[in-house]
């Protein structure tokens, strides 16, 4: 690659960054694309464009950019982070969870003191809950054929609304900001209708229609499993004792805040342990599948 191309790519990237900072994601995407034409071997250019495309909700394009970036640089935390978000958006929680866990692993191995860990941890938990929610939806639908038919109908109507909005974007009838607002409104309407529908069915079959979910505060921030023996750090965060000790043997920092932390500073979280035990006992019929 001629040296001038690399310099030109950096200049175009800087212009893209400026537009991205101003919320001008279409323009940012355009400059990142020009930069990639100049230097297609730079994985960071693909993650930059993927981030702009995330804002534009161009999910498949995000996935394509992230995969290309990972091909160029395997230990690519940002690419896996953006990839997980796009996969989750197109309702592929299994793949999203794998990508988010990889981003979290790469973040935990990073020597940089950043706030990425907490953000990625939240995404991992979101992906895991989305995966569980699909299993719950399928369980409930198997029990109630009519509910399944009605939910599928609502989902088809929602997808048609989103498709119509995308067509209006392509035809230049509405801009990206207005489109995103409309999509958010349609999604909210769809989710409310599904919730109301399930509530109506729950009145006739409360035992089997009961929502099964795990509260976030019972989940360990390292393994993302329900805690059995939680300990609390000096800043008030709780972790499973075995996992935080294993982490501190490798790195004497809080895995989420990256603040200095030692094993001696851990204290038993008795109240949380009682809550975890009570929850496990009350939900022993399904909790091990979570």
UniProtKB/TrEMBL annotation:
It catalyses: S-ubiquitinyl-[E2 ubiquitin-conjugating enzyme]-L-cysteine + [acceptor protein]-L-lysine = [E2 ubiquitin-conjugating enzyme]-L-cysteine + N(6)-ubiquitinyl-[acceptor protein]-L-lysine. TPR repeats lie at residues 9-42. Its EC number is 2.3.2.27, 5.2.1.8. The keyword Cell division does not apply. Residues 213-286 form the U-box domain. Keywords: Isomerase, Repeat, Rotamase, TPR repeat, Transferase, Ubl conjugation pathway. It comes from the Eukaryota. This is E3 ubiquitin-protein ligase CHIP. It comes from Zopfia rhizophila CBS 207.26. The lineage of its organism: Eukaryota, Fungi, Dikarya, Ascomycota, Pezizomycotina.
